[in-house]
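Example record

One chain of 103 residues, shown exactly as stored in the release files.
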Amino acid sequence: MRASVHVDLPGWTAYSVDKLKARCEELHLQPRGTRGESGGQTGHTYDISNKHRLGYSEVELVQKMIDGVNTLWEEDKKYQKECFGDFLHCIATLSSCKVCHKG
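Predicted structure tokens for this chain:
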């Protein structure tokens, strides 16, 4: 069984797509572009799925995918801060940001 989710990972994309692929391998995940297996990658949205298909229960496979995507998302937030600084914070909070807009 293949379970997948589309997730935006701008931090990983800016940091290194090759390192994202290696990290997915460690987490037993398979990253693809949103165009499918042979469609290539565009932007920073990925289709992340469990790498294993047989020999595990459906619950185990889905949970592995969920846990792995949650890990990637937490790591992505770190890379966003490293690669983009407070820029994304400013956009996310718009004019209510006291750090960037002093008011």
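Notes: The radius of gyration is 16 Å.
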